[in-house]
Design goal:
Layout lengths: L1 E6 L9 H12 L3 E6 L5 H4 L5 E4 L12 H7 L5 H12 L3 E5 L10 H7 L1 E2 L11 E2 L3 E2 L9 H7 L4 E2 L6 E2 L4 E7 L6 E10 L2 E6 L5 H5 L1 H14 L4
Parallel strand pairs: 1-2, 1-3, 3-4, 4-12
Antiparallel strand pairs: 5-9, 6-8, 7-10, 10-11, 11-12
């Protein structure tokens, strides 16, 4: 049985991370030992002996006037110990499943974006309000196996489509969606390699309801299996 660490926590203004943590753990605990943590600093010990890390969390420096009311309590700067632990883990062959706000996390640490494969750019990235999303699968890959059938059988989840992230060369885009009807396609599911580690990114996962939707739950569970294949 593999050991999976789930990091789900951060500013609760727009995300119920407790519910997100419970939902993610529920998707995994039948097949894996799950360790759930809420704060990034806990990863320095939680990753010991782990096989995969799942991140749906929002810990960042919170620059800008709009976050001033929360900054004193919730702003986070990555520590050297966290950086070393995560880099060592993924580079050494640990799997990473980066869900929703994972691409916004750790904005003072450029290497995090290189690990995930895509990173939020505060000067240009954006997303519309939550609405029913309609992703389009563009690759044949185990992470998105069966997803076309889900898309064709029911409406998509209510979630956010992130756009204009900074992408690393060499990512493999598996599914795309549009922020607005006239918008360009934006990657919403991708795979990536960082050292010996496998990485899957999923833009969706705003809340527990979205994660429980058959589209997202399939991508999350299949994505975890894929990143664990080389573990």
């Amino acid at each position: 049985m593999s050991t999976v660490v789930v990091l789900a926590g951060g500013l609760p203004h727009a995300h119920d991370f407790d519910a997100i943590a419970r939902t993610l753990a529920g998707l995994f605990d039948a097949e894996h030992e799950v360790r759930t943590v809420a704060h990034p600093d806990q990863l320095t010990t939680a990753l010991d002996g782990a096989d995969a890390l799942v991140v749906d969390a929002l810990w960042w420096t919170m620059q800008g006037d709009r976050y001033e009311q929360w900054r004193a309590e919730w702003a986070y700067a990555t520590t050297p110990a966290l950086r070393a632990a995560v880099e060592r883990f993924v580079d050494g062959g640990g799997g990473l499943l980066a869900v929703h706000t994972a691409s916004i996390c750790f904005d003072d640490w450029p290497e995090w974006g290189r690990i995930v494969g895509g990173a939020w750019d505060w000067s240009r990235s954006s997303h519309p309000p939550c609405d029913v999303v309609s992703p389009r699968v563009i690759a044949d890959h185990p992470v998105v196996a069966g997803v076309v059938d889900v898309i064709e059988s029911r409406p998509g989840p209510r979630d956010e489509v992130y756009g204009d992230l900074t992408w690393q060369p060499g990512i493999d885009v598996l599914a795309v969606a549009k922020r607005q009807p006239a918008d360009d396609d934006q990657p919403v599911v991708w795979t990536h390699r960082y050292g010996a580690g496998r990485v899957v990114g999923l833009v969706f996962g705003h809340d527990a309801e979205s994660l429980a939707h058959p589209l997202n739950s399939r991508v999350v569970t299949q994505g975890l299996r894929w990143v664990l294949e080389d573990a």
